[in-house]
Amino acid sequence: MTKRSSLWIGAAAVLALSACSGIELDRTSGMTPTGPEFNRSLFAEYISLSRIEYNEGDYGNSDAFAIRARSIGQGTMVEPEEVSARKIPANRTQELATYRGRLVNALRGGARERLPRDAAHAQAMFDCWLEEEEEGNQPVDLAACRTGFLDALAKIEGAPAAQPAPAPQAETITILFDFNKATLNAAANTEINRVVARIRALNAKSVVLEGHADRSGADAYNMGLSQSRVAAVRQALQRAGVNVRFDETALGETRPIVPTPDGAREARNRAVTVRIVP
Question: pTM of this prediction?
């Protein structure tokens, strides 16, 4: 072999070595991932692992982690690495496969959305654990990755599922009237204002109005009086800008709010009950 040929082969070997010497980290670390917080956190986790491997001179694994980060940066969903993708000792595969299954279940069960940073750390530490198990020569690093994974897994498995907000309940407000009157007094107008505020706060779809009278007059007269009271309340709400469906019922003295003997005057029975239905 001539000296010139030897020099050419040596240069080619250097170029080949540089091509697999962590170049993926340089290509990827400048990316700005978008999307959910989990994606952004997982991208940062993989870049961190890639940099650690690069600084240790493990350029193959540095590239592998950087490529996973780049896939995330390009919008691809990256799952935890398969145990079968690594050359893991046979006596270690069962534990790793079990933990991978738990991790995947937690991630798909909503951990990415509930605890995105912890979920991303759990995935990255699992992949780190796999890589260290395959190498098998850095027990301190292996223990650190395994512990980091188990701690993060405990957090995302123990996080309670987000509960839907309770549906708003119907509310009832009672508006009282003076004896033998169907006009709103000052106290009644105050209650009208409260009804309007609650209708808007609950974004109500309908309002149920039930008119009552006490038992001191004739049945037919009290029925008409309760009907007039319902109309007074509805009109006041409409003047205040309420635009919902009204369900109106006049009950007269047939269903008193407070039971009394016939002919008895009872202020609490001279009323319209307003049920606000969200």
Answer: 0.54
How crowded is the C-beta side of 189, counted as CA atoms within 13 Å?
6
Strand segments, DSSP code E, in 157-265 are: 171-176, 206-211, 245-250
CB neighbours (10 Å) of residue 166?
A: 6
Q: Is residue 192 located within the same domain as residue 140?
A: no
Q: Which domain holds residue 17?
A: 11-158
Same domain, 29 and 121: yes
Within this chain, do residues 131 and 243 fall inside the same structural domain, yes or no? Answer: no
Amino acid, single-letter form, for residue 41: S
Cα separation of 167 and 172, whole Å?
16
> Burial letters for 18-48: b for 16+ Cβ neighbours within 10 Å, e otherwise?
eeebbebbeebbeeebeeeebbbbbbbbbbe
User: pLDDT tens digits, residue range 173-221?
Assistant: 999 999 999 999 999 999 999 999 999 999 999 999 999 999 999 999 9
